[in-house]
Specification:
set domain protein methyltransferase, domain 1, set domain protein methyltransferase, domain 2
């Protein structure tokens, strides 16, 4: 393989000859990895960082920056020379860019928090360590911008090694492999060889880029770490949907107590996918919609079911977390099930209303048919296009969720009419029904209230 400029990801590894499925194409000795142990054993910076109990991430950033400042004298000079000077990671964005380009996206707040966390970490380290040892951490080198660069490299290149208890490491050469959603093979340690290996799960023709899996990540997570949104379909893509209890709910204290007993506090965020949503979302919506006819014991059960990974609401939707399913079969009135789905629908519509552009505008921008299309191929265009791709993928999921909910609600309303106002108990996993505009409006007003 050879390092080349590629269409996505800036640089990547391209096959210099045909590579077969199952072929091992990496064999990097563990001693060549850059880990927390590498940092702490360094006589120049390690002693200061270890004495202050600096965690792996900031310690690795400080070490990487120190080695970059040494130039050709660094034992990692060849590797550092291959690193991008402006990684596309979200840490390189300004707050104004985050505010404007990610408006409406749940990723916006995570991006702001990531930038703030790195800034605060630098300030703390500069006060406690850097400023006190300028012979080791020179002021001209250890600046906030340079520290952000080092963290951006870590965001986009740190590899988690499953066979080493998920230890984080920079893997020179191996971390030049870019992510592709449909790839299943990942970089790991061969414990017998004591080296990092990668075996392909498919063939790659000569001249084609070779890809690896960074693990199941949503488009938003990929944008945060790598600054790009995949052009191909991402089966792990999701968007976070925010739900909360109503402050006007007379049963608010009871519901809050039930949540707190299960380690939960409002608001709660749930990953919604194109093919469904986790069972926790529907169970929490049932708790939000619960009225006096729902017993405190049932509310406790709903809160407990919210905190566990259970059977997906849609048969093809994966559970949100790898935890044992909580045995729970809800049995409520049809009216309660209607209101629970209307809670989700209201939250979905509120999320859709938060974007400052339309889906059509973003897709026109991505296709190059917009009046706002940027001819510049620089960093700004990359960020604008990545943000448009993220907004588009998030809204497609939300619009699909909106459509499915409306279909369910319509069918449930038809069921309700057929039962002639019956109050029969029903056992629902994924039942269907119609829409109550008045209830949706009431929920929207509650959610929008500060």
């Amino acid at each position: 393989m050879a390092l080349r400029l590629v269409r996505e990801g800036g640089r990547g590894l391209v096959a210099t000859e045909n590579i077969g499925k199952g072929e091992g194409i990496l064999n990097i000795p563990e001693k060549l990895l850059i880990t927390g142990e590498t940092v702490y054993s360094c006589p120049r910076v390690g002693a200061h960082l270890k004495a202050a109990n600096v965690p792996d991430w900031p310690a690795l950033a400080a070490y990487l920056l120190s080695e970059a400042g040494r130039g050709p004298a660094s034992e990692w000079a060849v590797y550092i020379e291959t690193l991008p000077r402006a990684p596309p990671c979200i840490l390189q964005w300004s707050i104004d860019e985050v505010d404007v380009l990610l408006k409406g996206s749940p990723i916006r707040q995570r991006a702001i928090e990531a930038i703030a966390d790195v800034t605060n970490t630098f300030t703390e380290l500069d006060t406690a360590i850097f400023s006190k040892h300028r012979d080791v951490f020179p002021e001209k080198l250890f600046t906030l911008n340079n520290f952000k660069w080092a963290f951006a490299v870590l965001f986009s290149r740190l590899v988690r090694l499953p066979s080493r208890n998920n230890r984080l490491a920079l893997v020179p050469w191996g971390d030049m492999l870019n992510h592709r959603c449909e790839i299943e093979s990942c970089i790991d340690v061969d414990t017998w060889k004591g080296s990092v290996v990668f075996k392909t799960d498919r063939a790659f023709a000569k001249g084609k880029e070779v890809f690896v899996s960074y693990g199941p990540k949503s488009n938003g997570e990929l944008l945060l770490a790598y600054g790009v949104v995949p052009a191909t379909r991402n089966p792990s893509d999701s968007v976070s949907l925010l739900l909360a209890l109503s402050p006007d709910d007379p049963l608010l204290p009871v519901k809050e107590a039930a949540l707190q007993a299960n380690g939960l506090t409002c608001p709660l965020s749930f990953p919604v996918r194109m093919d469904g949503w986790p069972s926790q979302l529907l169970n929490f919506a049932r708790l939000v919609a619960a009225g006096p006819s729902v017993s405190q014991e049932q509310m406790q059960e709903l809160a407990a079911a919210t905190s566990f990974a259970g059977t997906p609401s849609s048969p093809s939707a994966p559970a949100v977390r790898e935890k044992p399913s909580l045995p729970f079969t809800p049995s409520f009135t049809l009216e309660h099930e209607l209101e629970a789905r209307e809670v989700i629908l209201a939250a979905c519509r509120l999320a859709l209303a938060g974007y400052s552009t339309t889906l059509q505008e973003d897709e026109a921008l991505l296709e190059g048919n917009s009046d706002d299309y940027l001819e510049d191929d620089g960093e700004q265009r990359v960020r604008v296009m990545a943000a448009a791709a993220l907004r588009s993928s998030e809204r497609r999921i939300l619009l699909r969720t909106d459509f499915v909910l409306r279909s369910e609600l319509r069918d449930m309303r038809n069921m309700q009419q057929a039962k002639a106002g019956g109050k029969q108990k029903i056992d629902l996993g994924n039942n269907f029904g119609g829409e109550s505009a008045s209830f949706i409006g009431k929920i929207l007003r509650r959610i929008a209230r500060p």
